[in-house]
Write a structure and sequence with these properties.
It contains no helices and 34 strands. It is an all-beta fold and 341 residues long. Strands 2, 4, 5, 8, 9, 10, 24, 25, 26, 27, 28, 29, 30 and 31 form a 14-stranded mixed sheet that branches. The protein is globular.
């Protein structure tokens, strides 16, 4: 008997185009005697593996807007649709290497077009206004990497080519804030408004005032960048992607003491906290790529949103998760509030 079965659950329930999902089902006929398929809003997915109880599928790269539905098909018979949320494309043709950030003044998104080290691109920074207009920022800065807003709403960006952090004044001029920072990548501010910069060569710097960096902590060097965010406990959380499949998220206390918070991620990159203390990391976990959610305390983790080449994320005041891949930016309506970057 030919049967498309019934979809019971989709893991994860959030994804961006091209992400890999697991469709848990019952009664699905996937043997060689019946043609079978999976569809997202009528567009065929690529099936990786299938059985009567589970189908692994890659979502099509089509531009999808928010709430969507998956259907299974076997021998021309379709299952009932099952809902999931797909990211809405906001921008593409970028070169992003870290988290985007939300402007606290007007909720615009800021992200970079970084390029490889020493490569001169123009423009290198963008603002995406709330009305959807993508504005090129007239800022001349090579290899902008980490971006964050300071306590007074000032925009700062690291320049990994020259080992600097700059303040972007009036949205158009990069003014040097501190130098001598090695391969400056990650940036974060603590609850007191003190800036911290990550040199991927192995040093975290504390910069309480302009031009006054001092070493704060030492970590293993990264092949790419340090990514940083302060947690609700006041500790600085850092990822340092390497070449292994079991990299660590580090937690650094106010005295610069380093501990391993969570281990087992492949190439962990941008990270952000929600208001409940859960940590979200762009990474690979147990062979699955996307955004990984690490529960408060670091005791467990799960794939929260599926996607390939994800490098960073941030939350908006509208409870959206902004997901950045190496060339595109998406919005996911997740209903979760987090810390603005």
């Amino acid at each position: 008997m030919i049967s498309a079965g019934k979809i019971k659950r989709i893991i994860p329930e959030y994804a961006i185009p091209g992400g890999e999902i697991s469709i848990e089902c019952e009664g699905f006929r996937a043997d060689t005697g019946a043609e079978h398929a999976a569809y997202l809003n009528g567009e065929q997915c690529r099936i990786i593996a299938a059985s009567s109880r589970r189908v692994l599928a890659t979502l099509p790269d089509a531009d999808v807007n928010g709430r969507s539905s998956i259907q299974l098909e076997s021998g021309g018979v379709e299952s009932e649709p099952y809902r999931l949320t797909i990211g809405r494309l906001l921008a593409d043709q970028m070169h992003i290497v870290a988290n985007p950030a939300v402007d606290p003044k007007d909720d615009a998104l800021v992200f970079t077009r970084s390029g490889s080290r020493g490569q001169e691109l123009s423009p290198t920074m963008y603002r995406l206004e709330t009305d959807g207009y993508l504005d090129e920022m007239p800022v001349e800065i090579m290899n902008p990497t980490g971006i964050a807003f300071g306590p007074a709403g000032e925009l700062f960006v690291t320049n990994r080519a020259e080992g600097r952090v700059c303040q972007i004044e009036r949205g158009e001029e990069a003014v040097v804030y501190a130098t001598g920072l090695g391969i400056a990548t990650g940036i974060a501010f603590d609850k007191n408004g003190v800036m911290f910069i990550g040199d991927r060569s192995g040093t975290i710097y504390r910069i309480p005032e302009p031009a006054l960096p001092s070493p704060f902590a030492t970590l293993e060097a990264s092949v790419a960048a340090y990514h940083m965010a302060f947690g609700p406990d006041g500790k600085l959380y850092v990822t340092a992607p390497g070449l292994a499949s079991h990299d660590t998220v580090y937690a650094i206390d106010e005295n610069g003491n380093v501990e391993k918070y969570f281990r087992g991620l492949g190439r962990p990159q941008g990270l952000a906290f929600d208001t409940d203390g859960n940590l979200y990391v762009a990474a690979c976990y147990r062979g699955k790529h996307g955004i990984v959610r690490i529960r408060e305390g670091g005791e467990s983790a799960e794939l929260f949103a599926a996607g390939n080449n994800v490098v960073g994320l941030c939350f908006t005041r509208n409870a959206e998760m902004i997901v950045a891949t190496n060339d595109s930016v998406y919005s996911l309506n997740v209903g979760i509030y987090g810390t603005l970057l």
